[in-house]
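Quick question: what would this complex look like in 3D?
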Amino acid sequence: MSHSHDRTISVEALARVEGEGAMHVEVADGRVEQVQLRIYEPPRFFEAMLRGRSYLEPPDITARICGICPVAYQLSAINAIESLCRVGTPGGIALPDGIRQLRRLLYCGEWIESHVLHIFLLHAPDFLGYQGAIEMAADHRDLVETALRLRKAGNQLLEVIGGRAIHPINVRVGGFHRAPTRAELEAMVPELQWGRDAAIEAARLVAGFTFPELDQGHTFASLRPELDRLPPGATGYPIEDGRLVTTTGLDIGIEEWPEHFHEEHVAHSTALHGRMTGGGTYLVGPAARFNLNADRLPAAIAELAEEVGCAEAVTNPFRSIVVRAIETAYAFDEALRLVEAYERPEEPAVPVEPVAGTGHGATEAPRGVLYHRYTLDDDGLITDAVIVPPTSQNQPAIEEDLLDFVQAHLELDDDALQWQCEQAIRNYDPCISCSTHFLDLTVRRR
Amino acid sequence: MTVLVLGVGHPDRGDDAAGTLVARALDDTPGIVARTVSGDPSQLLTDPLWDTAARVVLVDTVRTGQPPGTVQQWSGQRLLEHLPATGGGTHDLGVATTLHLAAALQRLPATLTVIGIEGIRFEVGHPPCRPVRHAAAAVAAALVGSLDGTAASAATEVAVRAVDLAGGVRGPQRRHVGLRQG
């Protein structure tokens, strides 16, 4: 333990995050000089692997980047390719409503699965004072049992629509290999109804946690759907499509992404860092979505948000667990609406012919905006690919959060400071495997 | 009296498929309910048979330094004493976490057996190696053989099926191979 003005705190391996990385904090003369998220997981070179492959392959190849948000990769890839190949665009090939409904419904399953895992099994132990879910389970059995059942409901959506829960195999450019029947979807309704009610109770529960003070003035960025492009039954909260908006007033089509956002190398990370043009940091994810789209929530979920203390914008990252719970309730609610409105398409997919050029696509992965860009040649082969995952975009802002948080809590001993720093990192549910296409903590006080 | 066999693994990652081969070979075997699973607790602990089956058998690929294809068996309770309580990332909590979670929830089956098949190759897109295929066949046959009143031919049939599945032999051909063995 140290309370000296100069100290270094190191965490060798952060728990309850996906992937491998470390955190290093240096304090000199009572001031935090440096905070680094050191991501040392090797780069995975997916973008290079895609070059020379067919325009039909990215949904299956990029799904392998992540085991918990493969749908995000599949649908961002599809959006990029289909926008280039004039599918679902004005004057282009129309996508049947049923295909668009299935895509959003499939994504609801992924949000449920990912959010429930993070809320209950990874993040809640921080607030309830346990090392992890196993230790928490002995004292909070009902909570863990509820989590398992909720997660299973999300998995069920993925299995019925996507063919399997991890790395779905039923998704393709133009639609699906097979469209489920209405009866197959309706069979899930009782569990979805239970899930919506359980998620609402979960939001009330997590809203009662004690949250450390941290109010950050980040720029938030998220998608915002165009209401006339939503499939029947859908409400307007961003999931699988939309324009890109920010709290600083940016409102652009996804094809304008390269003009406003870029990635850069930093010496301490194998993951690129996302920044806005001009160098500013920004945040994507549940809080960004909520802050920019709360007006799009259906009445019952909006009332829930107000009840659990989210009537205004959520700027304390520790309260992200509450927003995730609200979004989980929304995902169940939206799934029920989509099932009710579902019209099975006559054909599960529309034919898509390649078009030479560059296409851009983005969707809202559970952790935030996931952007894909592909350039195709005349034969439909990929000549260039760019994938920007949420964790890469959030890393600079996470480092800013940590710097401010450590500076404000230097009175804590090293163990307590390390614990809260790890908790602060988990606020963002970082996925290092995605970002490298994280955690050791080192705090050095000198 | 139902035996629940949970074959853990990924069918497309080399020797990691061992558990899935066992489960698939046991499809439609009277007295056995076999499932292919990822090992995630939301999949295992929500299975209605987890708490009610007469016996739960979990088959997974392991790496203990033994030669590939080596089969080891532990009781669930005994294994817990040696398994770390944490591991993996946010994306897959894994079998170890699942078993510890089950114990914390006081839902570890009294008759839980964990069978480990030693693996060595885990590359995406590769089939399991021959020793692992044969070990999966032997495990499937032994599980059928452990059922009361089961004919030896039934055990042989699932063993052949396990090897064929690993080799990509399709249904009708598989039956032919099975008859030859019978």
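Answer marked as accepted. The first strand of chain A starts at residue 7 and ends at 11.
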